[in-house]
Design goal:
298 residues, alpha+beta, Jelly Rolls, Arc Repressor Mutant, subunit A, 6-stranded antiparallel β-sheet, 4-stranded antiparallel β-sheet, 10 helices, globular, disordered N terminus, disordered C terminus
């Protein structure tokens, strides 16, 4: 892919300096007629220049870990685990890491014929994306968990199904997606990013709104409003979905008891865990584990 001329005015934050350019590392996972999927790992941080490039094809990238600021022709948003980056063929884009180091995405690319075929089958009124991001939400949770699982399994057939589902969901959901307000203040972006990364990396992070607000050094009301404006979801919803994705991935990767996994991922009430898991993924934890035929104690 060709590089675009650097333009610092396109950055979402002002915390970084003009340093080295760190290009993401791409590992091809699978490909088929009209689609490709790669594991994309970026190690850039606040000291590095934003990475600028062009979407040569329609792109849908599922953020697995880390965070970064993404800007393209449809706007700029903070990308967090569980969110989906949306890119239109021909559009330039910028990715920056003003407030944290590194991220990992599972990125799908589609040629025009494939995109139009999926859009037609999905009954969409438009196939070009109108927003830069889909925030973490219930309809996407199953696909996000499946994508994370497939990073350790070379299964071309499963990747092809995932490629189709990801594009169809992205096209369908964008029609009803309301983009949050414009760019956040740099200080607010930094505070929310700090909390997001703590939720991802620290299992002992506070689970209540006042506790998270103290980390951000904001009042609970201001933090709630700022967090939702930056991430597209509330702190409680974001924290809950982060835990549920951890459980979903571990259910199929480990033989531990379901109860032990749930407790280790932060759920203290078993009945509530079963209820929210079923609401998020459409099946019970046991049924979710058995969908891959794994037999394990529960």
């Amino acid at each position: 892919m060709r590089k675009l001329r650097s333009d610092r005015e396109h950055r979402l934050g002002d915390g970084g300096t003009a340093g080295h350019l760190v290009e993401p590392a791409k590992r091809l996972l699978a490909s088929g007629r009209g689609w490709t999927v790669s594991d994309v790992i970026c190690t850039a941080g606040p000291q590095d220049r934003p990475f600028e490039e062009q979407h040569l094809q329609t792109s849908v990238a599922i953020v697995v870990s880390g965070s970064f600021q993404y800007r393209t022709s449809t706007g700029g948003q903070l990308m967090t685990p569980g969110s989906w980056l949306l890119g239109n063929a021909g559009d330039g884009f910028t990715c920056g890491h003003d407030h944290g180091t590194g991220d990992r995405c599972i990125a799908f690319w589609y040629d025009e014929e494939f995109r139009e075929r999926i859009a037609s089958g999905a009954g969409a009124t438009r196939s070009r994306f109108q927003a830069p991001r889909l925030a973490p939400m219930r309809p996407l949770s199953g696909i996000v968990a499946q994508a994370a699982e497939l990073l350790t399994a070379a299964d071309p057939a499963a990747f092809e199904e995932l490629a189709i589902r990801a594009l169809a969901h992205a096209i369908q959901l964008q029609d009803g997606y309301v983009q949050p307000p414009g760019d956040a203040e740099p200080s607010s972006l930094a505070r929310v990013t700090r909390v997001v990364r703590m939720i991802e990396n620290d299992r002992d992070v506070p689970h209540d709104l006042p506790g998270l607000a103290r980390i951000a050094r904001l009042s609970p009301y201001h933090f709630l409003r700022t967090f939702e404006g930056v991430t597209g979801t509330t702190p409680h919803q974001y924290l809950l979905r982060t835990r549920l994705r951890r459980v979903a991935v571990r259910l199929r990767a480990e033989s531990a008891k379901i109860l032990d996994i749930a407790l280790d991922c932060g759920f203290g009430d078993v009945s509530n865990f079963n209820r929210v898991f079923r609401a998020e993924f459409g099946v019970s934890p046991r049924a979710y584990r058995n969908q891959r035929g794994q037999s394990a104690p529960s």
